[in-house]
Design goal:
Residues 172-271 form the Methyltransferase type domain. By secondary structure, this protein is of the alpha/beta class. The protein folds into two domains: 24-146, no CATH class; 163-347, 3-Layer(aba) Sandwich (Rossmann fold). Helices cover 44% and strands 14% of the residues. It contains 14 helices and seven strands. The chain has helices spanning 4-14, 24-45, 60-70, 85-101, 106-117, 119-123, 129-133, 140-146, 150-166, 182-189, 203-213, 254-264, 287-291, 311-320; strands at residues 170-174, 195-200, 219-223, 239-245, 265-276, 324-329, 341-347. The chain has a seven-stranded mixed β-sheet with strand order 3-2-1-4-5-7-6, with helices on both faces. Helix 5 packs across helix 8 (140-146). The protein is globular, with a radius of gyration of 20 Å. The two termini are 23 Å apart.
Length: 348
């Protein structure tokens, strides 16, 4: 009998429609180095240390310099060298070529180049990272990053197959944001007597979700901060399925969050978790700003500039919280693993 993980993987691969996978690893690397070179060029112009930096972002240039040092990219004297115009033109071309090879739409190129262009304004808080990710409230750029690409098509299709196999009727989605997975799950759930609670901390995302998904009468929308006690809005064992897509890393203590998720799950309930397990250089123009100024992390990342838990740390955290991992995709040796995004399914 085919296992749940095998069926999920097959569904994910089928969703790629024969997309070529052989060039993914080098393309991820090319995109990482191209974006990091763009950051280096900015630091080079600033003499290695920008002067006009908002206090809450003061740590970010050092985080960039550490990434450059790890790649051996600083100049011999320890300062970041200045880049020629021809080199920067090559950077732009490489970003777009790698973007295409990885199955991202053109919006991602525009977003990365806009972010690089606005690094000075991002650092001094004249431009917000949200204004670049959601220009004029539009979700197309965010969809390019979180939905309309090879890895998210794979992960979403695999997660839908998992959900279909579990057939859960009381669903809680935490940090649902743009609804990147929700949009694929809802058609599978139509026609069933279920209760689906779509939650996020942001009223902007909830209003957008109401407009997009309001026709699904089984949906409820609630503002929930999962860094607070989930037992306040939700009773113990009140859900069969909890979903968290690229959200759980925002927890101040991921172990505490997972323990709370276990508490609101029914005895035979399941968690569907999609998470990034490595900070790629391409995210250095966005994630540090999105997370900057928030409360100090209290888990493995305490005292560091890390955004994500590693693959191994997530598996251990799930087990420690009393959640048994039964699906872990894509397989480590599969080309899609180059994206460092994973689907975990765990049973209480």
């Amino acid at each position: 009998m085919t296992s749940l993980g095998e069926r999920a993987h097959e569904a994910g691969i089928a969703a790629l429609n024969s997309t070529l996978l052989t060039g993914l690893r080098p393309a991820v690397r090319q995109l990482d180095l191209a974006v990091l070179t763009g950051i280096a060029a900015f630091l080079g112009e600033a003499g290695g240390a920008p002067s006009d930096v908002a206090p809450r972002h003061a740590w970010i240039p050092g985080h960039w310099r550490a990434a450059l040092a790890a790649e051996g990219m600083p100049a011999p004297d320890g300062r970041v060298r200045r880049y020629r115009r021809a080199e920067l033109i090559t950077v732009r071309k490489t970003i777009d070529a790698a973007r295409q090879a990885l199955g991202y739409p053109p919006e991602l190129t525009r977003y990365l180049l806009d972010s690089l262009r606005h690094l000075p304004e991002l650092l001094n808080d004249q431009v917000s990272p949200q204004s670049l990710l959601f220009p004029n409230g539009d979700l197309d750029t965010a969809a390019a990053a979180y939905r309309d690409n090879s890895i998210n098509r794979y992960l979403n299709a695999a997660a839908v197959e998992v959900t279909r196999g579990l057939m859960r009727d009381r669903v809680l989605e935490l940090g649902a944001g743009t609804g990147s997975l929700t949009a694929d799950l809802l058609p599978v759930m139509d026609g069933r007597a279920i209760d689906y609670v779509f939650t996020d901390l942001s009223a902007f995302f909830l209003e957008s979700a109401r407009e997009r998904f309001g026709r699904h009468r089984f949906l409820r929308f609630e503002v929930v901060d999962f860094n607070q006690d989930l037992s306040d809005p939700f009773a113990p064992a009140s859900f069969d399925l909890v979903i968290a897509v690229n959200a759980a890393h925002n927890a101040l203590h991921t172990g505490d969050l997972l323990a709370q998720i276990r508490n609101v799950l029914a005895p035979d309930g399941s968690l569907v978790l999609i998470e990034t397990c490595h900070e790629h250089h391409q995210s250095l123009v966005s994630m540090p700003f999105l997370l900057s100024g928030r409360k100090e992390r209290r888990d493995h990342r305490a005292g560091t500039a890390r955004t994500y838990l590693t693959h191994t740390e997530w598996l251990r955290a799930l087990e420690t919280a009393g959640l048994k991992p039964v699906v872990d995709l894509p397989h480590p040796d599969h080309p899609l693993s180059a994206f460092s995004q994973r689907l975990f399914v765990a049973h209480r």
